[in-house]
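Final report, closing paragraph on structural work. Over the funding period we assembled a curated collection of sequence-structure pairs, and we close with a single example.
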Amino acid sequence: MSMSLVEPSGPWTELLERGREPFNRGDYFAAHERWEEGWRETRGADRVVMQGLIQIAAGLHQLQRSRVRPATSLLRKGLAKLGTGPALREEPRLGALTAKVASVIESLTTSGTADLESMKL
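Its predicted structure, as stored:
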């Protein structure tokens, strides 16, 4: 008997899926661009959360370019925005992402480097 995991569904799933694939393969710039398309379509608290995702993707892109200071700044701003609105409750992957981003920020603050291997959505 095999068990399958049920993927979350709903408006947030569609918005996340736009940039999820490039994000998971480490193409943070492409994820940023795809999420920006969704950002233009959202309003209110959801728009703020989308902006947070965009900032996180941009921060990770900066980190890939060895630009630690702008990366850390963008990651902090993005993390703060993910905590707003109902999206965190509706989309469990956002909660996991916030923990991973917080860990990256901590690592950057203490050692100036971070491992992005586990940065998946």
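The first helix runs from residue 11 to 24. The domain at 11-108 is CATH 1.10.3450.10 (Hyaluronidase domain-like). We thank the funder for supporting this effort.
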